[in-house]
Amino acid sequence: MSQDEDRTTGERTGTVDDPEGLRRSAAFLVDEALGFLFPAALRAAADIGVADHLADGPAAPAELAAATGTDARNLHRVLRLLATRGVVTEDEQGRFALTAAGQALRGDVPYSVRSAVQMLTDRTMWRPAGELTHCLTEGTTAFENIFGMPFFDHFAKDARTAAVFHVGMAAMSDQENAPIAAAYDFPESGTVVDIGGGHGGLLLEVLRRNPGLRGVLHDRSHVLAGNRLEAHPELAGRWTPQEGDFFTAVPAGDVHLLKRITHDWTDEDCVTLLGHCRRALRPGGRVLVVDAVVPPGNAPHQSKALDLMMMASLTGRERTEADFAELFARAGLRLSRVLPTPTVLSVVEAVAA
After folding, report:
1. Which letter, b or e, does each residue of 63-100 get, where b requires 16 or more Cβ atoms within 10 Å of its Cβ?
2. Which one of 173, 212, 218, 224 has the largest count of C-beta atoms within 10 Å of its C-beta?
């Protein structure tokens, strides 16, 4: 759709000889510019845990304020905005109820994304997003200009930020891991190496579904300390943690998993990492990059928003299928197929070239 077409009808509008169309354009753009206040309200609700206090049914703002230690009038204003997007709903008595769409904001339910919302709206993401102009004029991330060092260096020095990131990423991944593990036909035997695998949520699901496989969870030592696999005695003896830096080397394996890893890094960094995978890949092995694949066209897709987050805070980017093919080729690999999953992510499979 061109810039001067109505978003619903496709008719050309808003040209200099169409004042009414220009007024509609102005109203639309002002409304869009105010859109940043919704995630701000969502974060505030997550911070105070208001959704947990709605688990048993509707409540008035005064009741919720007393339960959360907040100001009732201001809490009502936040909830009123969240109601416009279907997170909560307000009844005729002024009480608010959690909707089906808002249930995962609770902290006490499976697939809770409360900590993921806090991560995605953390200052490390929020502040650079407000400086996208710097990315355009300087051609670099805005993060270092604000925080004085690259993203992951800041993590190494700031335990609070690191904790927010790793807990939030684990929560964000929880609702993805089982569908991704089910979407790919893993081999009956061999070793799966989850590179930069964090707390091991994806490896856990892969091993559960494929009893003939063994696993290696590869990450930094402080990340491995929070792994989830140790809590599953049925997997004892089938996996090992291995500390390491994937830019130096990766463990040998039959399948290398890289979930939400490559989008963090530049093309050059990715070629280095994928080159290590190629050298550590056993004969007949595969590299599985599990990431968003940017589709062509103008349709909305979460990858297009995530791409700006990568631009603002990190050095990487979301990639198209052609982008992945080029990275693989430079690393001695060949893209063999792209397998969509029920999530926003796809499995991009590569084999030795």
Report:
1. ebbeebebeeeebbebbebbbeeebbbbeeeebbebbe
2. 218
Q: Which residues are catalytic?
A: 263
Burial level of 258, CB count in 10 A (0-12/13-18/19+)? buried
pTM for the whole structure = 0.88
| DSSP characters over 45-110 | HHHHTGGGGGTTS-B-HHHHHHHHTS-HHHHHHHHHHHHTTTSEEE-TTS-EEE-TTTGGGSSSST
Buried b (16+ CB within 10 A) or exposed e, 271-302: bbbbebbbebbeeebbbbbbbbbbeeeeeebe
Residue 168 CA to residue 317 CA, distance in Å, equals 20
The pair of three-digit structure tokens given for residue 332, joined into one six-digit string = 């001695």
- Tokens 């909830």 correspond to 79
CA distances from 18 to 2, 13, 113, 260 (A): 16, 7, 45, 46
Q: How far apart are CA 46 and CA 44, in angstroms?
A: 5
In this structure, which amino acid lies at residue 32? E
- The string of pLDDT tens digits covering residues 96-139 is 999 999 999 999 999 999 999 999 999 999 999 999 999 999 99
